[in-house]
Amino acid sequence: MNIFQADFRDLVLELPDHSVDAIITDPPYARQYQSLYADLAAAASRLLRRGGSLLAILPNYNLPYVLSVVGEHLK
């Protein structure tokens, strides 16, 4: 098992498709960082193995937005 701690935008460039079982993250909460969730969902759709999980901690006010953008990439 490998655990990585990094900015996912840099790390995803090094990882092969469908090679990750779980992504666990706690992005910044400020509204200016909302776009990170769309980038994260796009990366997760490429990286996660079938049945893999994306676990993201987020503030309540962001839930509708995050569900919308993540739903564009993941089931």
Rounded average pLDDT: 93
Radius of gyration: 12 Å
- Contiguous low-pLDDT stretches (5 residues minimum) are none
- Please state the oligomeric state of the protein chains shown: single chain
Helix content: 25-40%
**What portion of the residues fall into strands of 2 or more residues?**
15-25%
Number of strand elements: 2
The main β sheet shows up as:
2 strands, parallel
The strand order across the widest sheet is: 1-2
From the N-terminal CA to the C-terminal CA, the straight-line distance is 25 Å
Query: What is the H/E string?
Result: HEHEH
Number of helices: 3
Task: Quickly give the structural class.
Answer: alpha+beta
Q: Quick one: overall form?
A: globular
Briefly say what this structure is.
By secondary structure, the protein is α+β, with helices and mostly antiparallel strands. The chain is built from three helices and two strands. The chain has a two-stranded parallel ribbon with strand order 1-2.
Structure in words:
The protein is globular, with a radius of gyration of 12 Å. It is built from 3 helices and 2 strands, in the order αβαβα. Helix content is 35%, strand content 20%. It is α+β, with helices and mostly antiparallel strands and 75 residues long. Strands 1-2 form a two-stranded parallel sheet.
Labels describing this entry:
3 helices; 2 strands
Write the SSE topology.
Blueprint: H1 8-11, E1 20-25, H2 35-47, E2 48-56, H3 63-71
Parallel strand pairs: 1-2
Helix pairs in contact: 2-3
